[in-house]
Design brief:
Strand content of chain A: 35-45%
Strand content of chain B: 15-25%
Strand order of the largest sheet of chain B: 3-5-1-12-9-10-11
Radius of gyration of chain A: 15 Å
Oligomer: heterodimer
Number of helices of chain A: 5
Radius of gyration of chain B: 27 Å
CATH topology of the largest domain in chain B: Aldehyde Oxidoreductase, domain 4
Number of strands of chain B: 28
Structural class of chain A: alpha+beta
Helix content of chain B: 25-40%
Shape of chain A: globular
Number of domains of chain B: 4
Distance between the termini of chain A: 29 Å
Distance between the termini of chain B: 57 Å
Order of helices and strands of chain A: EHHEEEEEEHHEH
Number of strands of chain A: 8
Number of helices of chain B: 19
Helix content of chain A: 25-40%
Shape of chain B: globular
CATH architecture of the largest domain in chain B: 2-Layer Sandwich
Structural class of chain B: alpha+beta
CATH class of the largest domain in chain B: Alpha Beta
Largest sheet of chain B: 7 strands, mixed
CATH superfamily of the largest domain in chain B: Aldehyde oxidase/xanthine dehydrogenase, molybdopterin binding domain
Chain lengths: 186, 787
Amino acid sequence: MEMSGEFRIPAPKEKVWSALNDPEILQKSVPGCQSITKLSDTELEGAVTASVGPVRATFKGSVVLSDVNPPHSYTLTGQGKGGPAGFAKGVAKVALSEDGGFTVLRYTAEATVGGKLAQIGQRLIDGTAKKLSEEFFGNFSAILGGGKTAVEPAAATAQPGVGLSPAVWIIGLILVMTVMTLLFVL
Amino acid sequence: MSSAIIKPNGIGAAAPRKEDYRFITGNGHYTDDINRPGQAYASFVRSPHAHATIDAIDFTDALAAPGVLAVLTGKDVAADGLGGLICGWLVHSKDGSPMKTGAHPILALSHVRYVGDHVAVVIAETAAQAKDAAELVNVSYGELPSVTAVAEARNPAAPQVHPEAPRNTCFEWELGDKAATEAAFKTAARIISLDIANNRLIPNAMEPRAAIGEYDKGTGIYTLHTTSQNPHVARLVLSAFVGVAPENKLRVIAPDVGGGFGSKIFIYSEETVCVWASKKAGRPVKWVADRSESFVSDAHGRDHQTHAELALDANGKMLALRVKTIANLGAYLQLFSASVPTYLYATLLSGQYDLPAIYCEVDGVLTHTAPVDAYRGAGRPEATYVVERLVETAAREIGMDPAEFRRRNFIRKFPHQTPVIMAYDVGDYEASLNEACRLIDYANFPVRKREAEARGMRRGIGFSAYIEACGIAPSAAVGSLGAGVGLWESAEVRVNPTGSVEVLTGAHSHGQGHETTFAQLVSDRLGIPIENVEIVHGDTDKVQFGMGTYGSRSGAVGMSAIQLALDKIITKARKIAAHVLEAGEGDIVFEDGRFTVAGTDRGMAFAELALQAYMGHKFPTSEIEPGLKETSFYDPTNFTFPAGCHIAEVEIDPGTGTVRVVKFVAVDDFGNIINPMIVEGQVHGGVAQGIGQALLENAVYDPQTGQLLSGSFMDYCMPRADDLPSFDVGVTVTPAPSNPLGVKGCGEAGAIGSPPAIINAITDALGIRDIAMPVTPERAWRAANGL
């Protein structure tokens, strides 16, 4: 499933880009970050503990970077595995642009989730996705904006279909992106 | 054999259920209530993918985790030479070839084939430690594309479930006379056709599956406590096919079981692993499914796609029925998987109607979904749905009252040989139809409809004149159709020296109330209080081989076995009584629990006779053995054919799409009735499940990823009390001639008869031809608004 969305971060583009390259900032921003290991310049793995309703698991993620074009855009390909809790995997294209004093982070992504996340997550994922993304970008913006935590809510759209509800994919994406973003520059 | 006067707690009495006191006071003994010394716990690592190769399993971390005793995988199963799980029914395709499927390993070896498939098991000191460690098992999967939808499975481009079954086709089966059917269709004045889906269901017994395996090093005997509907069959499969232990070294106990609905007939990986692992770990091993595991790993039900056509002559007389069904079998065949969409389905397609010709084709397909097998009704709900939707549609399209159309086509002479194997022995279909019409006040429906319209509601009425086959089944008959077992039942009646009685039955009660109804039979026949009768079931060490409970068979087959054993008890007791009372055997009268010499005041109570039987002082033990215990194995001579008429009235709010079942009448002919209260309870439960299927329940797999989307009660909607009206239940009686009690079986009728009644009522209310189950408010709203 494909989806897209954007976040508005109260800082200029260069600052956002360099922050996305700052492991300390990212680590502080990612909720539930456990560990990070750099495998090569473009391959990384890490662990994030996340809860979706009653499903609480440590997702081990790995990510590969490509099409890196500072400070404008990059592509992340990654996957997170949470054992019996399921898995999330996907590809995300992220682009930064400026709008007034804000940087707009736009993403388009394709993601898949499976296992217990897909089985029981549907009704719970909406809230979790919102909470996780708000936490990440809230933390991130707070650090960049010197305490300003105001973040425009994610405007996510997803193609309708018979399959998983958009919310399921979004949480998958968020989990993947959280891991991927975290690992981006390390 | 029904008495003219109903004795207190005898046959026909609404005796309160003996077992309920312990259930409602929390004193039942379910598998999870049982704990064995030194017991460890199992947690299963399940596939998150619908289809994948298992490239590697790294359980180093899991093995090192606190409390972990063992981590076992499919390689260990293979190394120990255990066989896979089996299907006990062999179906052949039209071309004569046997059904095709792959092996069903206890733990997956090279591939996983559905979300929830068993990959590994962790045994640990506590359940929490086992679950924690299971999360540390790192499985490397090679993901493969999957197919879950019944309509897609045979597409040549679809991913293959088993290489042994090309195009995912397990069998292409047929029943009936194709040529006669084609010929009849050529002469038809009208042909009515429908495309019908029977939605996939998840059983959801109140008690999840559970097992405790235990190995005694001293004797080499394994004991398995498990949530089984048929412990002897479980023992047979585990010993003869899986080879986990010899039959004489395996004791299977199915204690109190909280509902089964078919899902606990089958022998699953989990209990098999508990038995096997108990020896490997040197500890008793317990596993209790959590609800999430039940959703993905209990065998599901239904899941058919059908094209059905009915040929009529110019007078509205049925000429022929032609049915083509694709049935989803899931990823592996379970114990009865092959029989449910074939012999338990197409054999009922004649319904209550005099149909000269029927031809049915069923393609059984394999998909990357949980196995599909028997679920309350097992094939008969699917058949009834096809027939009764088609019949109602036909009546509307030829402009005939649906009750009248049915009357015109009812079978009226018995026995009646249908074109699809079954020989109906007795019935009175018009009687149940008329009684149902009376109870629902059919004549005044137009008044109620107008009144509803005035309130802005759309009211509809729908019929379902169902028939089913119960009392499964004559052993030779099912053997000729491919069953791997006989379907008789056994009973042993043990009279104690004090005159109390134990009945050991091969049937298993998991909600049916056998402890009451079976005791009623004994109380009635022997004239002893119901409190003096104990029903023993569910333990292979206590009870001789028996076939278990499913297919509404326990009354017709299990109680008939008890009846025959009681006959033997009474015959022997009369001989003893003759000696003790010093009279000729022919002069001994046994009535109301007393043996008397006819025409005298000499007599003795049943309990006195029992004591004499064990003392052996007053009769020649060289002629009559001491003791009073008799055994019977009863094989029925035919299926029984419960039938009846359900009528539903619904009101639909076109603004919200809410469907409210405002009236529901069920009139059933179950033959003679042992306990009308229990029968009514069975009808209520069955109708609730049927309404659940029609309005609420739906198992959904994501077509792209094969993930189970309806995997919890948040997304899988079970019926609740406020979804249901107060049911009006009535009975008509034609005693079954095929068993000595004249009973037919009532456990499934509600779930069989009700779905088409509901959908017929909804389509009537909305003036539409068809609507897919479950009729959610969204579907009803779209239909009501032409969207």
